[in-house]
Amino acid sequence: MQQINLYLPELRPQKPFFAVSSIVIACGALLCMLVIYQVLFHFHVQDLRTKVEALENQQVVARQRLDIIRQAARPKPSSHLDEKLEELKTEIIRRQKLELIVGKQNFGNTDGFSRSLNTLAAYSSKNIALQRIRLSDGGALLEMQGETSQPYSVANYISMLHQEKPFTKTQFGQFSLLQEEKGFHQFSLGFDSVYLDRERKQYER
């Protein structure tokens, strides 16, 4: 009887290289890897979406803040500012008229009367239109002539001037008032009475 030694490599039974069980295990491992990758990819996409939404929200907030800053920096029309501007324009016109009147007068020592003239301009009233001004006796006597829409404005004007240092010791000429047409009044302080002026004009006619 012949004996066969199965321990010899050449005599061992040959197994198939790709066994069914090995293929199943490999497929299962691959499937698990795909599932894990899909889950990780899903979470990664969700994280990216969250970050994108956060950036979009930040962009919206930044645009809103920019609009607020632009609106705040943009000058807004204000009725109060418009009124103030008109008052300043009127004040400039009144002072220019006063300077023109003063420029036509001969005060002699103009430098000595500069403070008095500045005070006259500073307290000029929109209700008073001065036509003539005369300072004499070294500023001790002030004479004015013009017209006003409100007679009490002349008294207020004189009162304010009298409280200022250049005019505390100044005497004002005799006051006369004449009502003209359209609600205006001719007044004079020290110059010829407005009544005499009217009579003179009527005589000249």
The major sheet is characterized as: 5 strands, mixed
Fraction of residues in helix: 55-70%
Identify low-pLDDT runs.
Answer: 106-111
Total strands: the figure is: 5
- Along the chain, the helix and strand elements come as HHHEEHEEEH
Distance between the termini: 176 Å
Give the C-alpha Rg. Answer: 52 Å
The total of helices stands at 5
Strand content: 5-15%
Average pLDDT number: 75
Shape: rod-shaped
Structural class comes to: alpha+beta
Describe the structure.
It contains 5 helices and 5 strands, in the order αααββαβββα. With 205 residues, the chain is an alpha+beta fold. Strands 1, 2, 3, 4 and 5 form a 5-stranded mixed beta sheet that branches. Helix 2 runs antiparallel to helix 3. The longest helix has 54 residues. The protein is rod-shaped.
Annotation keywords:
55% helix; five-stranded mixed β-sheet; alpha+beta; 5 strands; 205 residues
Short description:
By secondary structure, this protein is α+β, with helices and mostly antiparallel strands. The chain has helices spanning 20-73, 79-104, 114-122, 151-163, 194-204, and strands spanning 128-136, 141-148, 171-172, 175-179, 185-189. Helix 2 packs antiparallel against helix 3.
Write the layout of secondary structure elements.
Elements: H1 20-73, H2 79-104, H3 114-122, E1 128-136, E2 141-148, H4 151-163, E3 171-172, E4 175-179, E5 185-189, H5 194-204
Parallel strand pairs: 2-3
Antiparallel strand pairs: 1-2, 2-5, 4-5
